[in-house]
Design brief:
Helix content: 25-40%
Structural class: alpha/beta
Strand content: 15-25%
Strand order of the largest sheet: 3-2-4-5-6
Largest sheet: 5 strands, parallel
Shape: globular
Radius of gyration: 24 Å
Distance between the termini: 8 Å
Number of helices: 18
């Protein structure tokens, strides 16, 4: 492992300090590309204007006409947290703006698979819908849209995933990543795209005299859901996404959040009054995702839609229970998968450039999580496969992949598909996460082809695990109040939370629960407690560590502790 220190442009840091930003925050912001204080303005007025997104104006007209004619709309959602929040935002927002007949369908991960398929289009038609609206999916649903068109449905695709070589023949497509779209934020999540559609629809309805600026419905009530979906989908938190998340967090901390979301905070043991992006990514998001992995994502969507606190608490507790089941299944699968990977090479050998794992007993609902754990341990692009449980498709394997910086996973799958036509039955995704379906008989072909692409694309520097840090922490900044200040900032993918690094003295160390290393350190001559979760090997007397800051309470006194992320050994 190599611990590196980010470059800090001195002029940018100085400019931020002169504008009144705390010196430590100025240093952190400058290292993440912030050049001026106005970039930190997270007001709604600073959001990118909807006019820049291709298809928005047409989508607004389509939906406004539908509302005027009281036509029936059906939302087709995805079964992850981004899809669930996007669905909830669509239903809540459309009803706020006057839609009387809005329904939704969310595919079953196991039975239906991903996206708008021909079978899903038929179910939408059978429900009596006139207009089909996808959220967080649809850009790759060429056949599904064609079927919907043949059934007489109008289709509005709202998505953020990368398009394939052929776009679906939808009435309107809203996707910042489609060809010809000049919208600056290419990293906006599916829920963010739907929020922009609603903003454009409100503008269209305002121009038609449905209401004026003073009486128009307030869409900012949807921002807590937009924030949750954005962080949970691990999209890059560019300036526009950070503003969406900051606005959502502000409302949550003020208590202005749906009762189901409040119940989720409670079920997770978190306090919404001091909510952070960590809560979204590690507490709420996994509980909603668990429904789509093991049960029915309608539970997650209904939790976000309900305005009944009793119902919200009931659904949140069910989601919490499903998440516990998911953790149990994942734990067993993770141990089994780790043993399989360890059998692929000797302990003294360098791991292969890519990892591919399959076992007939794996559960397809958690293959992505297990792939992520393997990737984290060995720092290699990883695919984990499970057998399909769909009747008639038992010969198919469904795989989920996770990658490392410098290896674009979807592009790698695209190259495999070109070199070996017919091996990949379906695939899609992003740079860091992707999914695919193959026939079991082609597993060896895929494994070798995937490894070959990794061998060609990855060099020694990319394969070395590295931690980018913010360098040493001045002792005067090791304070609980400053820890709370840092936690309140919108950190996440592409705007990494602060990680500091320096050499410390290890005073004592012991294992806690047989899987965590508890440490007493001397940091710049002063004692500080630390813990390294998931690490069991002892550290030398002096060692360079990478660490995050946390604050806990002991006998009524708040104190700082270090959360160790890695060490140069």
């Amino acid at each position: 492992m190599k611990i590196l220190t980010r470059d800090i442009p001195p002029r940018a840091a100085w400019t931020l300090e002169q504008a009144g930003v705390h010196p430590l925050l100025a240093r952190l912001y400058a290292a993440r590309g912030v050049l001026a204080a106005d970039e930190l303005d997270d007001g709604l007025a600073r959001l990118l204007p909807p006019a820049g997104m291709k298809g928005l104006a047409e989508a607004a007209v389509l939906l406004a006409d539908a509302i005027a004619a009281n036509r029936r709309l059906c939302i087709v959602a995805d079964y992850d947290c981004d899809g669930a929040t996007a669905c909830a935002v669509a239903l809540r927002g459309l009803k706020l703006l006057g839609a009387q007949q809005v329904d939704y369908i969310v595919p079953d991960r196991v039975v239906d698979g991903y996206g708008l398929t021909p079978a899903i289009a038929q179910r939408v038609k059978d429900r009596g819908a006139d207009i089909l609206v996808t959220v967080d999916n649809g850009i790759a649903s060429v056949e599904g849209v064609a079927t919907a068109n043949a059934l007489g449905l109008q289709v509005l695709v709202t998505d953020h995933h990368l398009p394939g070589p052929q776009l679906p023949d939808a009435a309107v497509i809203v996707n910042p990543n489609q060809p010809g779209c000049g919208f600056e934020s290419k990293s906006i999540a599916g829920v963010g795209v739907m929020f922009y559609v609603l903003m454009a629809l409100r503008s269209e309805l305002r121009s038609r005299g449905a209401f004026d600026a003073a009486t128009q419905p307030k869409l900012d009530t949807l921002l807590p859901l937009v924030a949750l979906g954005t962080v949970a989908d691990v999209v890059k938190l560019d300036a526009n996404n950070r503003r969406l998340v900051a606005q959502g967090l502000r409302r949550i901390r003020a208590g202005a959040l749906p009762c189901g979301l409040a119940a989720l905070f409670k079920a997770a043991g978190r306090q919404h009054l001091v909510a952070t992006t960590f809560d979204f990514g590690y507490s709420l998001g996994p509980r909603i995702n668990a429904a789509g992995r093991l049960d029915d994502m309608r539970l997650g969507i209904e939790c976000l839609l309900t305005d009944d606190p009793v119902r919200g608490e009931e659904l949140a507790l069910r989601l919490d229970g499903i998440n516990r089941d998911r953790q149990g299944i994942e734990g067993g699968m993770r141990e089994q998968a780790m043993e399989i990977v360890e059998s692929l090479f000797d302990e003294s050998d360098v791991p292969p450039p890519a990892v591919c794992v399959f076992d007939p007993d794996f559960h397809e609902g958690v293959v992505g999580i297990v792939a992520s754990r393997i990737k984290d341990k060995w720092h290699r692009p990883t695919f984990v496969f499970a057998a399909s449980s769909v009747e008639g498709k038992e010969h198919e394997l469904k795989g989920s992949g996770r990658s490392i910086p410098g290896f674009h996973l979807r592009d790698a799958l695209d190259l495999v598909a070109k070199r070996h036509p017919g091996v990949l039955l379906r695939f899609g995704g992003h740079a860091m996460a992707a999914g695919c379906t193959i026939a079991e008989e082609h597993l060896d072909v895929f494994e070798n082809a995937f490894a070959q692409v990794a061998q060609e694309w990855l060099d020694a520097a990319t394969l070395m695990r590295r931690i980018d840090t913010d360098g040493p922490l001045a002792p005067e900044y090791r304070r609980p109040d400053l820890v709370e200040t840092l936690h309140a900032v919108v950190w996440g993918q592409g705007f990494a939370p602060p990680v500091f690094s320096e050499e410390v003295e290890v005073v004592s160390q012991r294992l806690v629960g047989d899987k965590h290393l508890q440490l007493k350190l001397r940091h710049q001559g002063q004692p500080v407690d630390a813990i390294w979760f998931g690490h069991t090997d002892p550290l030398p007397a002096r060692v360079k560590i990478a660490f995050r800051l946390d604050a806990d309470e002991w006998q009524g006194v708040r104190r700082v502790r270090f959360l160790v992320e890695g060490a140069e050994l």
